[in-house]
Amino acid sequence: GLSASRLAFRQGNFVPPESRQAGIRARDIILGIDGKELEMKMLQFNAYVRLNYKIGDRIVFNVVRNGVRRDISMKLTSRIKR
Hints:
Blueprint: E1 9-10, H1 17-22, E2 29-33, E3 36-37, H2 42-52, E4 58-65, E5 68-75
């Protein structure tokens, strides 16, 4: 039920240690950040994070896991890479 441009991507099997420690799991579906429903593709998402957040900022990932929406907070310790 999402628009074609609405951010929604499934986390791959590799989860960076910082993300795993925060609670993000393989196969989680990332819907947005800080409650914002972002209209972008996954590669644009990485640029969005780099442009809008600094190392040390706290980010809340809005995810769906097993059909349940949850918010996962994490401190940005390095740049998100893909």
